[in-house]
Structure formats: structure tokens, C-alpha cells
Amino acid sequence: MKLRKLCETAGLECGDGDAEVTGFAIDNRKVAPGTVFGAFQGAQANGENFIPAAIEAGAVAVVARPETQVLGALHIADANPRKTFARLASHFFTPVPQHIVAVTGTNGKTSTVEMTRQLWRMAGERAASIGTLGVTTPDESVSTGLTTPDIVTFLANLSGLAREGVTHVAYEASSHGLAQYRNEGVAVEAAAFTNFSRDHLDYHADMEDYFAAKMRLFDEVVSDGATAVIWMSADGSEWNARALDHARRRGLATVTVGEAGDDIRLVGREPTQLGQVLTVEHGGETRKITLPLIGAYQVANALCAAGLALASGTPANLVWDGVARLQPVRGRLERAAIAHSGAPVYVDYAHTPDAIEAAVAALRPHVTGRLITVFGAGGDRDHGKRAQMGAAAAKACDVVIVTDDNPRGEDPAEIRRQVLAGAPGAREVGDRREAICAAIAEAGADDIVLIAGKGHETGQIIGSGDNMRVLPFDDVEVARECAAKSVGGAA
Ligand SMILES: CC(=O)N[C@H]1[C@@H](OP(=O)(O)OP(=O)(O)OC[C@H]2O[C@@H](n3ccc(=O)[nH]c3=O)[C@H](O)[C@@H]2O)O[C@H](CO)[C@@H](O)[C@@H]1O[C@H](C)C(=O)N[C@@H](C)C(=O)N[C@H](CCC(=O)O)C(=O)O
Ligand SMILES: Nc1ncnc2c1ncn2[C@@H]1O[C@H](COP(=O)(O)OP(=O)(O)OP(=O)(O)O)[C@@H](O)[C@H]1O
Ligand SMILES: N[C@H](CCC[C@H](N)C(=O)O)C(=O)O
Ligand SMILES: [Mg+2]
């Protein structure tokens, strides 16, 4: 496609620009002849320094701030180059699937996009999801490494999915992704907000800044007239009420969901051994639905997913039938093993204080003995959440073992110390395998073991920069190994 034509379609002024555009890149090392290069100031590097190298490699245009120097290629100047780049690229990567929905929130994004994908699939649609678990299509699941891929990968994935015949996509909009304009430029017909609590304060200045990043989804990213699906918990989170305000101010259709929701109202929840029976009011009808998953948090995600599927036009009877057939999401309260003693061992991706509380609350009704929890906190991430995670575990569990979880560039002992500061009485076992085996060996028949923090992850990240290594590590596999070895039973 000619550059001038592309600019015109995107509503940008690019002068003559008769060069042929062959692709887009935000990393000069990925530039080929005909590429449009996005030069962004980042957290680690300044992409503007790579403009000459990008032009040398064949870039025909550079999207960059007005004050940068671009010699030998067209300068598409904008004070917000990431936004303009996304807009331009979105007119190159076409067509995209007809139905696109997004999910944001501190916890529950991956679960909700995955459940939305499942609901669509059960309703007979060709559906995919994009998020922490990678790109999941009707045929396969491919990891992208980040929750929200970079804008080029995101748009290329969407158009690739459309070419494969996928018509419905649910994607996870992380706060990093939203702040960096990594996932936009396409028509988003509905978006969900799950919840908001502490995380990522290494990246965002404070909770307000973090919330503002999330609110870009309703304020700017979704299409005019889109639907906002908002969880409204019984305890009335102020953040969720504020999210609703944002949606209303933008003039979106709103669907409130939950105990305090008006549109999809959860009026009852009875835990059973392997799931829960929900009473849900929607569209003037009251339904009893058996959700084959445990834990209040999975209900929240399932109902938000239902809200998104309904907003995309999936018929209500198919959506609610689907909710009763949802499959577990990998690494989210996944029952990994049974110890010799009979104690079940669960793996969960809880890595925030709120998530630990939610995961423990999910298991508590199923424990007659002790709840034994093993977890740690990631390195090079929000330090302030560590003691709070420790406190959440210590308050609600009977035995807490603090271990390592992706120490990255930090000293693991120091991370554990910060977690332990909030968890009086907790034990410290640095080696994660040893910690998991200790918990499983100690569990008696009436106990439950929770291994939190890594969920679906398959590696332990040690070191950073050039010294970064990923050692194979899978909580589910390790739990099985330890269970096979366990001789069972606390005294
Ligand atoms: C803090 C953060 O979000 N960083 C991401 C972000 O970096 P950045 O824009 O700050 O880029 P940078 O590395 O400073 O470089 C600036 C620019 O120079 C370019 N560059 C750089 C070097 C070079 O040789 N040539 C070149 O052109 C880069 O491509 C970039 O455009 O954009 C990069 C390109 O897409 C990402 O690789 C990088 O993810 C890093 C590795 C990361 O760890 N990100 C995590 C924190 C993250 O994004 N997590 C979220 C949330 C997780 C969740 O809670 O679910 C996620 O969405 O995954
Ligand atoms: N609705 C919810 N409310 C509270 N906690 C939740 C909720 N959903 C999930 N969690 C907790 O958060 C963990 C991560 O869930 P999930 O992967 O769905 O979230 P996420 O938002 O995608 O996380 P990330 O930001 O790492 O991508 C779960 O394992 C669970 O412990
Ligand atoms: N998307 C999250 C995942 C955290 C998972 C946990 N295992 C950790 O490493 O802290 C992040 O990058 O902050
Ligand atoms: Mg996720």
C-alpha cells in the first residue's frame, strides 16, 4: 500500500509520500525496506536514538515527536507518537475480526478473556483470546511473552486471526499496554472492568495514575456506543463506581454485573464440592446455573465474560448454557495433585494482595483441616505489595511458607524478607521446589495446599539484562512430583 493512501485513510497529512509501505516496526532491528518506524521514548531506551539506524535499514517513514530529527524518510510528527503510530498501523493490518472485546482490571483479565472465548466457542463461533496465556485460537495456543503484546504484534495477530476465519476476539488490556498504546486502533465493541487493587506501583506513580491508565479503555479505546461491562461487588468498591462514571461520561451502554449489579444480578451462590450453584437475574428471567468452578472470584469473571458475550450479540440461552459448561482456566485454582494423605493441591496465579485473599477465600469453604499456602513475590516489580501479600496470606492461612517467585534482577533473600515482614509466623524456604514439597509432605487428609503466584508459568526467571536466565519450573509438575514422593500426613 502507498504511504500517501495509508495516511489518507488514517486521516493524517503525510505530503507526497509515494513510497510503498511493507510493514511496521517499533524496534529498529525489525525494520526492513518499506517499513514505517515508530520512535518512542521508553522506560529503558529512547527509540529516537535509533531513527538513523531504522532509516539505514530501509524505513520509509518515522512516526516521532515533532522535535526529533528525521533525515532521509518522511517524518510523521506528533506529540504523542505512540497513539498516531497505532492509528496508522491499524489501517495497514486489515481486515480484523468483526467482534472484538477487551478486559481490564487488576485481577481476572486472563480468566475473563479465556471464559469469553469459551462461551463464544460453545455458541458455535470461531473465537480467540489474546493475553497472558498467549494467543489462543480454535486450533492452538501460542505464547507472546507479554500480557499485552506490542502494537505491531497485536495488530498483526488480529489480522492474522481474521485471515484464519476467526470472527470473535477477546483481549486483555493491561495497564502497561493501555499506557503505552499497545492495543488499540481497532473497533472494540465491548469492554469489561473486573476490579482494581494494588499492583504495578513500580511502573505507575500511584493508584490514581494506575487507575487513569486503565480508564483509557473506556475513555478512548472502545468504539463510540460500545458496551461497558462492570463488576459491582457487594462491598461497593469505589473504583468500580468510578469506572462506571467514566463509561457513562463517554456515553457507553453499561451493563453492571454482580451482587450490586443491575443488569446481570447475582442473587445467590451456593458452593458445592466441585463448583457452585448460582442464581442469576438477567433480562427479566431468574436462572439457576451450576458453575463447574469453585471460588467467588471465578463467578465474577464468568459473569463478566457472559456480559461481554451478550454484548457481542451471542444469544442469552447459549451464553447461560455455556456458563454451566465452562472449563477451568490454566493455573487459576487448578487442582494439580492429590497428596498421599488425600490433601488436594491447588495452583493459582495470585500475585497481588487482593488475589491472595481471593484465592484463599475460594478454598476456605472446602477445608476442614488447615490451609497451607506457599508463595513468593516477583523481583523487579512493585516492592510495596510484598508485605501486603504476606499479610493477606498470614491473616487467612494456617501455615504460610514464603519462597521465591521470579527473583529477576533482585536478591531473592531480600524479596523474601520483605514478604515475611508482613507475615509474622511464616516459614521461609527459598528453593521453590523444596517449599512445595515441604507443604505437600506436611499436609494431612483434611488439609488443602495452595501454591500461589506462578499459575501457568513454566519458568523461574533469575537475573536480568544479559544475565537473565529462565530455569524450567512448573508449579503443577513440581506439585505432582512432590505428591508422588509424599508419605502423607501431619502428625
Ligand atoms: C515497562 C514496560 O512495559 N516495558 C515494555 C515497553 O518498553 P518501553 O516502551 O519502555 O521500551 P524500551 O525498552 O524502553 O525501548 C524504547 C523503544 O526503543 C526501541 N528500541 C530499543 C532498543 C533498540 O536497540 N532498538 C529500539 O528500537 C524499543 O522497541 C522501544 O520502542 O515496550 C517494550 C516493547 O513492546 C516491551 O518489551 C517492554 O516490556 C518489558 C520487557 C516488560 O517486562 N514489561 C512488563 C512489565 C509488562 O509490560 N507487563 C504488562 C502487565 C503484566 C500484567 O499484569 O498482566 C504486560 O502487558 O505484559
Ligand atoms: N475477579 C477477581 N477478583 C479477585 N481476584 C481475582 C479475580 N480474578 C482472578 N483473581 C486472582 O488473580 C489471579 C490472576 O487471575 P488472572 O490471570 O485471570 O488475572 P490477570 O488480571 O490476567 O492477571 P495479570 O495482571 O497478571 O495478567 C487468579 O489466580 C486469582 O488469584
Ligand atoms: N504480569 C505480572 C505477572 C506476575 C507473576 C509473578 N509470578 C511475578 O513474577 O511477579 C507481572 O509481570 O507483573
Ligand atoms: Mg493476565
TrEMBL record:
The reactions it catalyses are: UDP-N-acetyl-alpha-D-muramoyl-L-alanyl-D-glutamate + meso-2,6-diaminopimelate + ATP = UDP-N-acetyl-alpha-D-muramoyl-L-alanyl-gamma-D-glutamyl-meso-2,6-diaminopimelate + ADP + phosphate + H(+)
Where is each Mur ligase C-terminal domain found? 331-455
Top-rank taxon of the source lineage equals Bacteria
Q: Record keywords: Secreted included?
A: no
Give the Pfam families listed for this entry.
Answer: Mur_ligase, Mur_ligase_C, Mur_ligase_M
InterPro entries from the UniProt entry:
Mur-like_cat_sf, Mur_ligase_C, Mur_ligase_C_dom_sf, Mur_ligase_cen, Mur_ligase_N, MurE/MurF_N, UDP-N-AcMur-Glu-dNH2Pim_ligase
- GO MF annotations for this entry? ATP binding; magnesium ion binding; UDP-N-acetylmuramoylalanyl-D-glutamate-2,6-diaminopimelate ligase activity
Write down what this protein is called: UDP-N-acetylmuramoyl-L-alanyl-D-glutamate--2,6-diaminopimelate ligase
What is the primary gene name for this protein? murE
What class does this enzyme belong to in the EC scheme? ligase
Q: Which family does it belong to?
A: Belongs to the MurCDEF family. MurE subfamily.
Q: What is its EC number?
A: 6.3.2.13
Q: Which cofactor does it need?
A: Mg(2+)
Location of the Mur ligase central domain:
103-309
Keyword entries, A-Z:
ATP-binding, Cell cycle, Cell division, Cell shape, Cell wall biogenesis/degradation, Cytoplasm, Ligase, Magnesium, Nucleotide-binding, Peptidoglycan synthesis
**Residue sites binding UDP-N-acetyl-alpha-D-muramoyl-L-alanyl-D-glutamate per the record:** 147-148, 174, 180, 182
Where in the cell? Cytoplasm
List ligand-binding residues for ATP: 105-111
Q: In which pathway does it act?
A: Cell wall biogenesis; peptidoglycan biosynthesis
